[in-house]
Design brief:
Layout lengths: L3 H12 L5 H40 L5 E5 L7 H9 L4 E16 L2 E10 L1 H4 L9 E4 L3 H4 L3 E5 H7 L6 E12 L2 E15 L4 H4 L2 E5 H7 L8 E6 L5 H11 L4 E5 H4 L1 H39 L1 H9 L4 H32 L1 H12 L20 H27 L3 H5 L3
Parallel strand pairs: 3-8, 5-7
Antiparallel strand pairs: 1-9, 1-10, 2-3, 2-6, 2-9, 4-7, 5-8, 6-7
Helix pairs in contact: 1-13, 2-11, 2-13, 2-15, 11-13, 11-15, 13-15
């Protein structure tokens, strides 16, 4: 695009000392503004990626990568389906489950809950709940008949601790001579878990699958089978392959469908932050317009002399485009370098800043995530650099075009 003479003159104008100090000030502010905008954008996107990954990991600590269930809500002949699933590629683990709703009561406290019936041994292959027990024992679910493990905030809501007797009230009822009576069953709290996600800690309770089959009248049946896959981000594709390989009427749902609204909201928020922070870069980049317009007015005599020496309007445009691009490229490179260093060391920088200021940005007693996670992606760095470079180029076009329209006779009339 550029000839060597255009580049040389563009660099020369960039390095030259200014008679007008205001031009130097605007140039410096444009350079610093672009660097700060790029640095902020890379850092914020890395933190948002970190939060997204943290939330995803906490959700998948309880949720499965994919589930297979029957069309009617019950999966018949599930042992044969389970054996068939284990033969499928990409499947690392599977576990049957029963999922129902019920009321839990303790003394005068009542709270609705999702009751998940699990096989404690198989459940270890698809979730991390056995590692998230904060009180009691996960193994006690096997040993204790009609034992129950509660989410931490669910237990707090009904005032239960390990060893408490809680009563479960199911939606189904028994018909007795005295009339229709709700099905009640007393459970012993054998454990309390905390996975760090309110959806589970406040609403989920675990019982043994054999107890769930008796309580919910599903003897020999389960709601479905939970799967753990070896490729988390390929879950949609793998789920479709599993669904096509299993005979009968089954519904296969992956984790992106279970939590579609949450991750869609996070992606929308990330996109909006990209747009908002790009405006910082845009403001700084379009300061280049002011810089170049003033430079063009200041250099009209030089432009006229170049035109009389044979420089074409296109060459004049390239001179001032290259001058603006130098500011943008150097500012972008500085911002990218600073952003990468910040994103990769945020776990060191934030605690140091908290110690210096004597404050805690994310207090552990208020927020579930008390540290700022960071996950820098090179694709975000590339997008940020491309946006900054593109805005810089756009900002140079109008001043460069005005420079190319300078008439030598008019410019030199009063020289």
């Amino acid at each position: 695009m550029f000839k060597p003479l255009s580049l040389f003159l563009g660099f020369r104008y960039t390095r030259a000392k200014r008679r007008n100090q205001f031009i130097s000030f605007i140039t410096l502010s444009s350079f610093i503004g672009i660097a700060i905008g790029v640095w902020a954008l890379i850092t914020v996107l890395a933190v948002m990626n970190g939060f997204q990954a943290e939330i995803r990991d906490r959700i998948l600590g309880m949720a499965s990568h994919a589930t297979i269930s029957g069309i009617s809500g019950k999966l018949e002949d599930w042992p044969s389906v389970d054996k068939l699933i284990e033969q499928q590629p990409h499947v690392k683990g599977s576990a049957p489950y029963i999922l129902k709703e019920a009321m839990l009561t303790n003394a005068s406290n009542v709270h609705g809950a999702l009751i998940r019936g699990i096989d404690p041994e198989q459940e270890k292959s698809v979730s991390e709940v056995s590692e998230k027990i904060v009180h009691g024992s996960y193994e006690a679910l096997n040993q204790k008949k009609y034992g129950i493990i509660l989410g931490r905030y669910l237990a707090r809501s009904i005032g239960a601790v390990v060893g408490s007797k809680v009563t479960m009230v199911t939606p189904s009822a028994n018909v007795t001579p005295a009339g229709i009576m709700p099905r009640l069953k007393r459970f012993t709290v054998v454990g309390i878990f905390e996975v760090g996600h309110n959806q589970y800690d406040s609403n989920m309770a675990l019982i043994h699958i054999r107890d769930a089959q008796i309580l919910f009248k599903m003897k020999g049946l389960v709601t479905g089978i939970r799967l753990k896959l070896d490729a988390l981000y390929d879950a949609p594709r793998i789920s479709r392959e599993i669904e096509s390989n299993i005979e009968g009427y089954h519904r296969v749902i992956d984790w992106t469908q279970h939590h579609a609204n949450l991750f869609r909201a996070i992606n929308i928020e990330k996109t909006m932050m990209l747009i908002i922070l790009s405006l910082i870069i845009a403001v700084a980049a379009f300061n280049i317009v002011s810089t170049l317009v003033i430079v063009v007015n200041d250099k009209q005599a030089d432009i006229a002399i170049l035109r009389t020496l044979g420089a074409s309007p296109g060459m004049i445009m390239r001179i001032f485009i290259s001058q603006g691009m130098v500011i943008g490229i150097v500012g972008t490179l500085l911002g990218v370098a600073t952003g990468i260093l910040t994103a990769q060391n945020i776990d060191i920088l934030v605690p140091a800043l908290e110690s210096l200021l004597g404050i805690k940005f994310l207090a552990a007693d208020i927020y579930l995530i008390s540290d700022l996670p960071s996950e820098m992606r090179w694709s975000d760095v590339l997008v940020t650099g491309t946006i900054s470079f593109s805005l810089t180029v756009l900002a140079t076009i109008y001043p460069a075009w005005r420079a190319s329209r300078v008439q030598p006779a008019e410019a030199l009339r009063y020289e």
